[in-house]
């Protein structure tokens, strides 16, 4: 009868129906694609971004059931403001998708202290405190998703520091899987391969061609493809999946 009523009314029950999600770095690329998909699947989404103009544009593109909160995940006061907003508007969280991150590349002999500090501040510190500060609002049985990268397991020239940040968050998930088990909170890493996002779009064409040549499927991924994997980890479809790293990489890290 429920399915008949849904057909008659044109409504469906989404895989995230009634869920509250926080997605950091939700203004472009993977984060924006995930926010759009989560809303289509029935969630209310809070997204963050550092630049207000891009944040406003993303909220408009998502269209409904979304709140944008400007902030930098490496700034703990900004994270406090994010969760204060979530608490006032919805009072709880079911899904934390700690997606915000940055990528800069430098070979060993050209690594600077500034390069090192920037990547670890955003990718590691920002991810850690995004999750830690969500815990008081995060429902038992919730889902934590971190955006990793195949760089965390692949040795690639000039990716040393970036890859180290992604390897670090893989370690977070292993620890949190045990620490949060009594609350039935699942923690997983979603690790894309090369994806057609603004970060890669700025690379020279020959560099992109070299990257594509290493992917067995012969192309880069699309943000929407990564978003579908995030939906799997966010939903009850992955109810027995925790502590893992899910690669969505066209096979690049698997051979």
Shape: globular
Q: What is the tally of beta strands?
A: 7
- N→C terminal distance: 48 Å
Proportion in helices? 40-55%
Secondary-structure-based class equals: alpha/beta
Number of helices: 9
How much of the sequence is in beta strands? 15-25%
Average pLDDT rating? 93
The biggest beta sheet reads: 7 strands, parallel
**Whole-angstrom Rg:** 18 Å
Contiguous uncertain segments of 5+ residues: 1-11
What is the oligomer described by this structure? single chain
Order of helices and strands: HEHEHEHEHEHEHHHE
Offer a quick outline of the entry:
By secondary structure, the protein is an alpha/beta fold.
Task: Explain the layout of strands and helices.
Blueprint: H1 2-9, E1 20-23, H2 29-40, E2 44-49, H3 52-62, E3 66-70, H4 76-89, E4 93-98, H5 113-132, E5 138-147, H6 160-179, E6 186-192, H7 198-201, H8 205-213, H9 223-234, E7 245-248
Parallel strand pairs: 1-2, 1-4, 2-3, 4-5, 5-6, 6-7
Helix pairs in contact: 2-9, 5-6
Account of the 3D structure:
Helix 2 crosses helix 9 and helix 5 runs parallel beside helix 6. The radius of gyration is 18 Å and the shape is globular. The longest helix is centred in the middle third of the chain and has 20 residues. It is an alpha/beta fold.
Which terms would index this structure?
about 260 residues; alpha/beta; seven-stranded parallel β-sheet; 9 helices; about 45% helix; globular; disordered N terminus
């Amino acid at each position: 009868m429920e399915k008949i009523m849904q057909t008659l009314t044109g409504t469906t029950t989404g895989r995230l129906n009634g869920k509250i999600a926080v997605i950091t770095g939700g203004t472009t690329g993977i984060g924006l694609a995930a926010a759009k998909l989560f809303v289509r699947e029935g969630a209310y989404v809070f997204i963050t971004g550092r630049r207000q103009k891009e944040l406003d544009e993303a909220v408009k593109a998502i269209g409904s059931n979304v709140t944008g909160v400007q902030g930098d995940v490496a700034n703990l006061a900004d994270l406090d403001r994010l969760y204060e907003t979530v608490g006032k508007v919805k009072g709880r969280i079911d899904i934390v998708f700690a997606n915000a991150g940055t990528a800069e590349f430098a070979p060993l002999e050209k690594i600077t202290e500034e390069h090192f500090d920037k990547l670890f501040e955003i990718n590691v510190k920002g991810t850690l405190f995004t999750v830690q500060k969500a815990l008081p609002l995060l429902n038992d049985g919730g889902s934590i998703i971190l955006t990793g990268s195949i760089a965390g397991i692949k040795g690639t020239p000039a990716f040393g520091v970036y890859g180290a940040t992604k390897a670090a968050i893989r370690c977070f998930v292993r620890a949190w899987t045990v620490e949060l088990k009594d609350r039935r909170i699942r923690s997983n890493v979603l690790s894309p391969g090369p994806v057609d996002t603004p970060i890669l779009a700025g690379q020279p064409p020959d560099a992109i061609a070299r990257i594509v040549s290493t992917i067995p499927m012969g192309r880069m991924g699309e943000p929407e493809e990564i978003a579908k994997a995030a939906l799997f980890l966010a939903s009850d479809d992955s109810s027995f999946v925790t502590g893992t790293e899910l690669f969505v990489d066209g096979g690049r890290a698997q051979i």
